[in-house]
């Protein structure tokens, strides 16, 4: 499968690129700095650009079969960058007739985290969650074959495969490794599961 990955130099994005290449896919990594990824592979293509630029995104999406977005906010004060980048991805998807989109958001998107952890999330990540929510709403409105991942706190760590999924958040779940989030995305893509679903993730 031909997959373009936005946010490929972040922890989750890089883990997805590595796992997708290991699984035999052709991967296009979209990045601002083509030398930052640090992965070399015969099936890896680097495309330099800015996801805030619609033309850059459209060029990167050309010829792809699926899109993975692991993009993050630039700061806790940012309320619009994710929405802008996602709208550019959706425009490119429509232009090139690509339906499959996998997007990494955050747990707390729907105020679904209970207790003190949920309250802290709403306070600290208020702007980021607002931005993710607008981006996810745009994806749903575009009628994509989407999978929205809503992981709990992201940790650096290897793939374990021992994580849980939930419509809300896994009970007592607190964190998950970036490698496992990438694992979830890749298997959802390969197996055609979690289509038109938003899924909470935790170990």
Give a quick set of tags describing it:
37% helix, globular, 10 strands, 8-stranded mixed beta sheet, alpha/beta
Give an account of the 3D structure.
The protein has about 200 residues and is of the alpha/beta class. It is built from six helices and ten strands, in the order E-H-E-E-H-E-H-E-H-H-E-E-E-E-H-E. Helix 1 (about 10-20) packs across helix 6, helix 2 packs across helix 3 and helix 3 packs parallel to helix 5.
Q: What is the CA–CA distance across the termini?
A: 28 Å
Rg from alpha-carbon coordinates: 16 Å
Q: Low-confidence segments, ≥5 residues, pLDDT <50?
A: none
Q: Strand order across the biggest sheet?
A: 3-2-1-4-5-6-10-8
Q: Mean of residue pLDDT?
A: 93
Anisotropy-based shape: globular
Our count of helices gives 6
User: Could you estimate the helical fraction of the residues in percent?
Assistant: 25-40%
Strand content: 15-25%
In N-to-C order, the SSE pattern is: EHEEHEHEHHEEEEHE
Structural class computed from helices and strand pairing = alpha/beta
Major sheet size, sense and barrel closure: 8 strands, mixed
- Give the number of DSSP strands: 10
Quick recap of the structure?
With 203 residues, the protein is an alpha/beta fold. The chain is 37% helix and 23% strand.
């Amino acid at each position: 499968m031909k997959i373009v990955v936005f946010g490929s130099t972040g922890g989750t994005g890089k883990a997805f690129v590595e796992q997708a290449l290991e699984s035999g896919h052709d991967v296009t990594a979209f990045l601002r700095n083509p030398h930052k990824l640090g992965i070399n592979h015969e099936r890896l293509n680097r495309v330099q650009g800015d996801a805030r630029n619609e033309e850059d995104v459209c060029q990167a999406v050309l010829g792809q079969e699926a899109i993975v977005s692991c993009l993050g906010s630039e700061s806790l004060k940012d309320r619009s960058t994710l929405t802008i980048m996602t709208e550019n991805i959706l425009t490119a998807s429509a232009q090139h007739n690509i339906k499959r989109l996998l997007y990494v958001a955050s747990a707390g998107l729907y105020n679904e985290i209970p207790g003190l952890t949920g309250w802290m999330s709403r306070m600290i990540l208020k702007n980021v969650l607002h931005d993710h929510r607008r981006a996810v709403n745009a994806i749903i409105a575009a009628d994509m074959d989407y999978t929205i991942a809503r992981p709990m706190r992201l940790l650096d760590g290897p793939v374990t495969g021992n994580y849980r999924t939930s419509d809300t958040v896994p009970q007592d779940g607190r964190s998950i490794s970036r490698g496992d989030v990438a694992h979830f995305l890749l298997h959802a893509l390969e197996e055609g599961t979690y289509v038109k679903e938003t899924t909470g993730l935790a170990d």
